[in-house]
Amino acid sequence: MPTEQFARFVVDTPVSAIPAEVMARARDAVIDTFGVALAGRDEPVSAIAARWAREISAAPQAGLWGHGLRTAVPEAAFANGIAAHALDFDDSMVTLHGHPSAAVVAAALAVGEFVHASGEQLLAAYALANEIAGKFGRAFGDEHYLRGWHSTSTIGVYACAAACARLWGLDAAQLCHAWGLAAAQMGGLVRNFGSMAKPFHVGQAARAGVLAAWMAKTGMTADPRILEGPNSVLDTYGGADRIAPEELAGRLGKPWDLLDPGVNVKRWPCCYGTHRGLTGIFALRESQGLRAEDIESMTFGYLPGNDAALIDREPASGLEGKFSMEYTAAAAFMDGEIGFDTFTDAMVARPEVRRLMRKASRYRLRPGDFEAGAPVFVDVTITTRQGRHELRVHHAPGSRGNPMDAAQHEAKFMDCARRGLDDERARRLLGLLRDLDRVPDVSQVVAAAAAKE
Amino acid sequence: MPTEQFARFVVDTPVSAIPAEVMARARDAVIDTFGVALAGRDEPVSAIAARWAREISAAPQAGLWGHGLRTAVPEAAFANGIAAHALDFDDSMVTLHGHPSAAVVAAALAVGEFVHASGEQLLAAYALANEIAGKFGRAFGDEHYLRGWHSTSTIGVYACAAACARLWGLDAAQLCHAWGLAAAQMGGLVRNFGSMAKPFHVGQAARAGVLAAWMAKTGMTADPRILEGPNSVLDTYGGADRIAPEELAGRLGKPWDLLDPGVNVKRWPCCYGTHRGLTGIFALRESQGLRAEDIESMTFGYLPGNDAALIDREPASGLEGKFSMEYTAAAAFMDGEIGFDTFTDAMVARPEVRRLMRKASRYRLRPGDFEAGAPVFVDVTITTRQGRHELRVHHAPGSRGNPMDAAQHEAKFMDCARRGLDDERARRLLGLLRDLDRVPDVSQVVAAAAAKE
User: What pTM did the predictor assign?
Assistant: First the structure.
């Protein structure tokens, strides 16, 4: 009975049986998610969610991160999930074919706050839920996404229900019912990408996971074997390439998805299509001691299609700058770093940056330049008065092949958190999150991030 | 652009353009739905939903019918939707392949109460939403259900969003976005039948429709052409037998689904598999002046498979009695009526009823007895000392072929409403609902049904 095996894994695995490395990666994911949510707090879609929470004015059970506002657990999960995905700056995982942390951290922290869970309990809930996300991702198959579903939310809702079930102390039978109720709420379409509905999906998955767990805890029933048999949710929503749940249930924690493949953390708050190019710019700039005034040209060779999202060659605004290899390269070179401040209209308008931008260009690699089916890379070439410097970049920082170190993680967090909090509060919050496994009550974390309304 | 055409129909059709007959059928549906929800108020699944509303303790914007409890609009829609489907006693519609009214009335009345809509506005919103349910039902096709989805909620959510959009005064563009958000929340699996999740689906559709409309009203965006193009929601969830939305958009109100095929109202609170048999019993009993003491046998001939749900031949409880042709036939004969009171343990245990039950039996019609593909019927035969009486029953009362008259509708309502309210309040409520088109503010209706908490 794989549904029950998955459920037992979630509710019965003792914290002591979760490897320290898994708990550490869970902590990194919570830090990253909390940070990007603070950064996304004032995005229009997040503002709508906060307005909704104000409008329904529910019991103050859990907080909206970076707000003074408190609301009922499901609404906090909803609003924080939306904020965490509002900038599309949150982590991703290939086995889920989506973003594993935004919804789960939002749901888990809302319940965790309500039940005064310890930081260790929260991390365990996240780690177990992430494992469900990865294994269920394979159970639905990559074709699930290709059929039109946004796995981040459609599969994420099961992970959210798992995290909430763990924190609320459901037994395995109750979690099986909760998954039946999660199946009844799974939704999210790729067709909604490019609209506010994409982060809405994440908030919705978080809320639905909370609801499913609460309902099951209170006696609501559903089909408790929703992954199994004819007309199962896998039959109805899965792809032809899906792996049988019976097989996956035997692979729980062997290895943990948090270790292999792990999550990919986004290093810079701009289109992922610029990340390999930026990696090359920073590497050459530092290793070769290049100076902006010496540059004659910067070129970026892309595999066919890989620069499709880079729609702005001459950006007129900060937002457009995020989708410009030319601008981000120039800014990286001039400023030595890329952060939120890089993407203001004023920064994009700087004359010296625009002069440098004009020396940057993209080109498409020709079939002779690469092998068919080769792993993705970008060729970065910088020509100066002194010479020509080339670098082929496969791995952007934050990806499994080039993980971010602790300092880079914390720099990203601070860059994010400062958008919503003053420097001192941001540092205090980071201190709490860094030692999350020793925090006795996670509501301290949310309180540390609370701002005046 | 069919999505926009559907949306314009919902938001732009003036009340004066809705035929009086459609408004009358809308009123019947609201009365029936409100009644079955009052009857379902104390079912375990409804009690969980009410407990949830108490737990999150949101702003008192709308009431739980038959309670004193008030909560935020989406939670009222959720709880009332669950109560309305808790007994599976609510109406159905073949073009939706499900129950069209429970979710829509719950969502519409919650918003209607909040905005102080008139009864006429509420009826118009219901009528337009029902039309969306019927046309979208064809747009997804019957195979949508066969692929595993519970159309009542998966398609119902679009109707709910439509009703809420109408009452909140959204424009067509906003409703298109709301439908994108509804698509992101559509859920409900046939596999959950037989559990509390079935009514949960209905509550969830009502809540999701409210949420979609509110979010779109407040500026949330989604794909505004979610019914159209590659990877549309119809591509992803529809059956091969679906009808193109372009064609259906031209058939709005031509005719109205409320008139053709219309909704099927359930006459008695027991398994639909008993309804044709009961129709025959009542007809023969009255027309032939039969008396219980004269009866030698009552037999019911079913087409193969049509009595599959009648699992209890010798019911030991009131609940089991609902799934027994033998018991319901005996009770109908003895009591001259079937109502909630029929299904108490004490009523089932009556010695005189059990004696009569033993004279009742079912049999399966043999292939020679009917033509392949014939419309469903049940052969009812009563043998008395005086002779043999036969009737072939095609249409149960409340179905399109045998509609209930006003007195039968009201008798059902009173039987339902008395389960939650005293007789005087139930009559006053019925009076309000009967004249709903002249009620200036629908919150009066909910207030009239409010009980002390």
Answer: 0.91
